[in-house]
Amino acid sequence: GAVVSQHPSWVICKSGTSVKIECRSLDFQATTMFWYRQFPKQSLMLMATSNEGSKATYEQGVEKDKFLINHASLTLSTLTVTSAHPEDSSFYICSARGWGGSRQETQYFGPGTRLLVL
Amino acid sequence: GDSVTQMEGPVTLSEEAFLTINCTYTATGYPSLFWYVQYPGEGLQLLLKATKADDKGSNKGFEATYRKETTSFHLEKGSVQVSDSAVYFCALFPDILTGGGNKLTFGTGTQLKVEL
Predict the structure, then answer these.
(1) What does the alpha-carbon distance between residue B27 and residue A54 come to, in Å, rounded to a whole number?
(2) Mean pLDDT of B43-71
(3) How do residues B85-106 score in pLDDT, each as one tens digit?
(4) Helices marked H in A1-118
């Protein structure tokens, strides 16, 4: 079945550094990729939507200069948290929308990346 | 705009008990409806879905029926196991024909704890 991978699964970094998270769709091409943020015991908050080769569309309140998204190909999107601070610590989940073997477009989720900024 | 309302948790059940997690939605037309499950420390997994009225999605013993008349998509399982302990999210994807956009709308999630 369709799989979305994320790397790394865990990252601990010092305040002020930048962190890059990769999201890949395996075995299918993603028409659209999404980046979510999840705080403990809360639902997912959509941060941005991206299509291959075009600029990401950010949700209201999400700083585009803080969270850089690059959608290099139909199977790869990256989220870079620039100059990370402790308040950026969170669980980041990517999602890819595509056919993935199904007769309908379906949205598949990655396993998430837990970021801890010290 | 679109919205999804789920019953608040946590829901605590004994093993083999019957499970219902309520989900209602607000959206135009006929959105697609989903249940996702999130196990501790992991991302979301698609549990089941239904794309048109009266469809029943089912997987791993879980079922949900798309009820247009009550705008509901309640999740049920006849006999839960300890391994079902997780957070369950109800979600909808807009009806493209009504120009509803391309984003999933999630409920707040319901934590299920199953005890021996």
Answers:
(1) 29
(2) 95
(3) 999 999 999 987 777 677 899 9
(4) none
Q: What percent of chain B has pLDDT over 90?
A: 79
**Termini Cα distance of chain A:** 37
Instruction: Report CB contact under 8 Å: A108, B89.
Output: no
Instruction: Please report, in angstroms and rounded to a whole number, the separation of the first and last CA atoms in chain B.
Output: 41
Instruction: Tell me the residues of B at the A interface, defined by beta carbons under 8 Å apart.
Output: 32, 36, 41-46, 49, 51, 89, 93, 102-104, 106-109, 111
Buried b / exposed e along A41-70 (16+ C-beta atoms within 10 A):
eebbbbbbbbbbeeebbbeeebeeeebbbe
Residues pairing with A11 in the sheet: A115
A106 and B46 in contact by Cβ < 8 A? Answer: yes
A43, closest residue in chain B (CA to CA): B108
**Whole-number average pLDDT of chain A:** 90
* 8 Å CB contact of A43 and B51: no
The reply to whether residue B43 touches residue A104, judged by beta carbons under 8 angstroms, is no
Give residue B104's identity as a one-letter amino acid code. Answer: L
